Automatic annotation (TrEMBL):
Protein name stated in the entry: triose-phosphate isomerase
GO MF entries: triose-phosphate isomerase activity
Class of enzymatic activity (EC top level): isomerase
The UniProt record lists the keyword Chloroplast: no
Amino acid sequence: MPRKLYIAGNWKMNTSLAECAALTEGLVERLGDVADVDLAIAPPFVYLQAVGRQVQGSRIALGAQNMFYEDNGAYTGETSAAMLKDVGCCFVILGHSERRHVIGETDELINRKVLKALADGLTVILAVGELLEQRQAGQTMDVVRRQVQVGLEGVGVAEMAGVTLAYEPVWAIGTGETASPAQAQDVHAMIRTLVGDLYDAETAAATRIQYGGSVKPSNAAELLALDDVDGALVGGASLKAEDFAGIVQAGRDVP
């Protein structure tokens, strides 16, 4: 059974409340009834509830860009899975390169978040990817393999139904650079093989692996046509309804 495309927009630390409302309105208008592709958006925390109200009744899922691994307590500035669910979230992005390389999150910390999110009923987009110097040193596969292995430690076969993996070469995020189709396919294929080694062939075949890294309407079709690319985690292009819709349409047009 073919894997259903999954395209998610990560708005990062962008938009004002008014911009957020206008963007969401545009997305619902263009994509609210799309059924053949799974669609999701992750606005900034402070706008989650407002966006949740706007996408209610549409087929666009609401999620968050991060979360903490405890239920509550003296964790200033953090947000729990229960809080996210309370405002309408059904998924969370974890392990994004900016959390890893700007904020300093480790593979082990990300794993704790993954386990907590799944335990509390959120689905997870687990992002992995290498730095430019790691690719230049020929370390891409080793780096990505470790991030996947540690990120999924303790996640059972049944729980993998709630996990999407996202390969994001860090050197291609927000730079305008994109991994070549061959580069993307090679890493995606390795990740799928690894999931098979960690779990089983059925789980590997069912797990969706998104590509992230300067995805835009002009390159989306080529990337989404690859055998092991099952969607996209979109950054900058998700901030314009027309661009995000163009990426979605490119995916829908893939034979």
